[in-house]
Amino acid sequence: MKKVVVLDARAGKDYSEGHVPGAINVTWQSLSNMQPKQGETGWGVVLPPDQLAEKIGSLGIDGSKSIIVYNDPKGLGEEGRVLWMLRIAGLKDSKMLNGGFPAWKAFGGEITQDVPPVNPVAFKITTPDNSLLATTDYVKNNMAGIKLLDARSPEEYSGKTNHGEKALGHIPGAISIPYNNAYNDDGTIKGIPELKEMFNKAGLKPEDDIVTYCTVGIRSGFLAEILRMCGYEKAKNYNASFSEWAGAGLSVEK
């Protein structure tokens, strides 16, 4: 483990009950702006570069080691959201642990409750990779030229339920691809050929300008990373997602 940094993206309670030795607990919220309320502008979006760099440095990450992020596949794709934020910060040598914590346990990996010491370092984001990020204005101004993917559940997409957004339904023209369609039944991520077939059936092409969204960019962050893994290199995560879209009173459909 000395050659890599391991990040546990689960909630603090789950981390405290047992984790991979040496893993540092990093929730998506810790790297995001949680000051606004849901529906208000900026709720849950990735921190500005200077604040994001400070948070990453406080974890002892200086960019010299590979980073592995894990979660529990029964979650909301938090490992993908954390990975997406690390890549915005320029930490390209970052990966998800396939199958997450359950796979580690099934493999017979050691589990501990010990919290590793962390030595903060000075980390600087020279140029944030904003090609990974879509804003509300970007989506509004490019509706005709992008492929919108709704990473939420079919029930949320159809308007039967939601996660606290101020409207029911989905952004007009969006295609429903629930984020958890990328998982096998055992919680591992499907192989690239199977994933590409799923995206192809949805009418996606590698050269498309794709924007994923969910409630606040967690599930869609995971889906965007899966898309890029499969060669859809223009995939962006609409971080503020449907919470900000609905909160702004923009049009929706069911």
Automatic annotation (TrEMBL):
Residues 2-113, 142-254 form the Rhodanese domain. Gene3D superfamilies: Rhodanese-like domain. It is an enzyme of class 2 (transferase). Its EC number is 2.8.1.1. It catalyses: thiosulfate + hydrogen cyanide = thiocyanate + sulfite + 2 H(+). SMART domains: RHOD. PANTHER family: THIOSULFATE SULFURTRANSFERASE. InterPro entries: Rhodanese-like_dom, Rhodanese-like_dom_sf, Thiosulfate_sulfurtransferase, Thiosulphate_STrfase_CS. PROSITE patterns: RHODANESE_1 (PS00380), RHODANESE_3 (PS50206). SUPFAM superfamilies: Rhodanese/Cell cycle control phosphatase (SSF52821). GO terms for molecular function: thiosulfate-cyanide sulfurtransferase activity. Keywords: Repeat. CDD domains: TST_Repeat_1, TST_Repeat_2. This is thiosulfate sulfurtransferase. Pfam families: Rhodanese (PF00581).
